[in-house]
Amino acid sequence: MKKVGILGGTFDPPHIGHLIIANEVLHAQNLDEIWFMPNQEPPHKIKSGDVTNIQRVEMLQLSIEVHSAFRIETLELDREGKSYTYDTMTLLNEAHPDIDFYFIIGADMVEYLPEWYKIEKLMQIVKFISVNRPKYQLETDYPVQYVKVPDINISSSLIRERVKDGETISFLVRDEVKRYIEENRLYES
Ligand SMILES: Nc1ncnc2c1ncn2[C@@H]1O[C@H](COP(=O)(O)OP(=O)(O)OP(=O)(O)O)[C@@H](O)[C@H]1O
Ligand SMILES: O=C(O)c1ccc[n+]([C@@H]2O[C@H](COP(=O)([O-])O)[C@@H](O)[C@H]2O)c1
């Protein structure tokens, strides 16, 4: 069976933390590929409203082109409403019976797991891999594997605040993404 890690996210915008954790998990778990999966509506927070789905996908494309094992899965963008992972993984398992999926989450999402939609059933249809994230706890009663990554204190919120305040985002996102944000005047207000 092919082993694929799914990094679901809002990617508003994608930053180097996403790339680092994807690469670390790819190697630590001997996965074949990582699929970056932008959500339509994040179940637990509100998108910034500054970007379109197409812009988030374009920034993801610019981010992942560095790695031949990185792909984008746009399935959640075809569905309106909140992107519940249970619904998505049911569809992905049906569409790819030859693939063993691993859903990758940062420690902030581990803390939130008890609130996930149909969490008990979700745990039965996909394996979870967690990674550490500064300021969040990894303890959970759910059967989640753990991959230790270098602590990365970068978030999409930080990038948005920096742009709004006219501060640098160099090296926090890929240069191509920085240029895209500037050219499209994203996150300025
Ligand atoms: N610096 C990081 N360290 C570990 N995990 C991270 C990091 N940044 C993002 N993640 C994980 O990547 C996934 C997608 O994150 P997302 O696209 O929501 O970015 P974010 O930085 O958390 O965004 P925001 O600041 O807008 O909440 C989530 O599982 C999140 O926990
Ligand atoms: O299904 C849920 O209830 C659920 C609750 C919180 C987060 N998720 C998913 O977890 C991934 C990371 O979430 P986010 O919002 O931090 O980008 C993303 O794919 C979300 O759709 C899913």
TrEMBL record:
MF (Gene Ontology): ATP binding; nicotinate-nucleotide adenylyltransferase activity
Pathway entry: Cofactor biosynthesis; NAD(+) biosynthesis; deamido-NAD(+) from nicotinate D-ribonucleotide: step 1/1
InterPro entries listed in its UniProt record: Cyt_trans-like, NadD/NMNAT, Rossmann-like_a/b/a_fold
Positions of the Cytidyltransferase-like domain: 6-162
Reactions the enzyme catalyzes: nicotinate beta-D-ribonucleotide + ATP + H(+) = deamido-NAD(+) + diphosphate
EC number: 2.7.7.18
BP term (GO), one: NAD+ biosynthetic process
Pfam families with a match to the protein in the record: CTP_transf_like
Domain of life: Bacteria
Keyword match NAD: yes
CDD domains: NMNAT
Alphabetical UniProt keywords: ATP-binding, NAD, Nucleotide-binding, Nucleotidyltransferase, Pyridine nucleotide biosynthesis, Transferase
Similarity-based family: Belongs to the NadD family.
Functional description taken from the UniProt entry: Catalyzes the reversible adenylation of nicotinate mononucleotide (NaMN) to nicotinic acid adenine dinucleotide (NaAD).
Name listed for the protein in its UniProt record: Probable nicotinate-nucleotide adenylyltransferase
Organism: Niallia alba
